[in-house]
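User: I've been trying to design a sequence by hand for this structure and keep getting stuck. Would you show me what you'd pick, starting by listing the structure so we're on the same page?

Assistant: Good idea, let's start from the same input. This is the structure you sent:
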């Protein structure tokens, strides 16, 4: 199984929220639940900085699509793919 880990460069991120609203998984969760929170989102902004949320065993976790990376005006997001047995 592949796990995608996002890294946000906190020196570059200025909290614009573009990554959060562009993430297709976040969008699906928002449509389903009508809100985004730590429980259902894969990426959120808090205190002016974006942060990824990964939870083992959760139905939805980042699938590595790269949309947030492309959209970020500050080029603050990197992604790492980790294989888990
Ligand atoms: S799009 Fe980039 S600058 Fe904007 S909140 Fe996300 S990581 Fe930060
Ligand atoms: S890589 Fe795709 S699924 Fe993962 S946080 Fe970014 S936009 Fe969402």
């Amino acid at each position: 199984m592949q796990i995608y880990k996002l890294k946000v460069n906190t020196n570059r991120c200025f909290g614009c929220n573009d990554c959060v609203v562009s993430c297709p998984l976040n969008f699906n969760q928002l449509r389903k639940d009508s809100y985004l929170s730590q429980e259902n989102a894969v990426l959120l902004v808090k205190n002016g900085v974006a942060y990824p949320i990964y939870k083992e065993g959760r139905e939805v976790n980042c699938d590595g699509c790269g949309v947030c990376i492309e959209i970020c005006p500050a080029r603050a997001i990197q992604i790492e793919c980790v294989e888990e047995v």
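That's my pick for every position. To get oriented when you compare it with your attempt: The beta strands are 2-8, 43-46, 49-52, 77-83. The pocket of iron/sulfur cluster (ligand 2) is lined by residues 4, 6, 23, 25, 42-43, 62-68, 79 (CB under 6 Å).
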